[in-house]
Amino acid sequence: MTLLTFTLILFLGAFLAGFIGSLSGLGGGIIIIPLLTVFLNVDIHYAIGTALVAVIATSSGSAAAYVKEGITNMRLGIFLEIATTAGAVVGALLSTVAPTSLLAVIFGLTLIFTSINSLRKKEEHLVLQSSSLAEKLRLPSTYPAADGTRVAYGTKNVVGGFSMMGIAGMMSGLLGIGSGAFKVIAMDNIMKIPFKVSTTTSNFMMGVTAMASSVIYIQKGYIEPSICMPVVVGVLIGAMTGAKVLVKANTKKLRLFFAILILFLAANMIYNGLNGKI
Question: Which domain holds residue 48?
Answer without folding.
Answer: 3-274
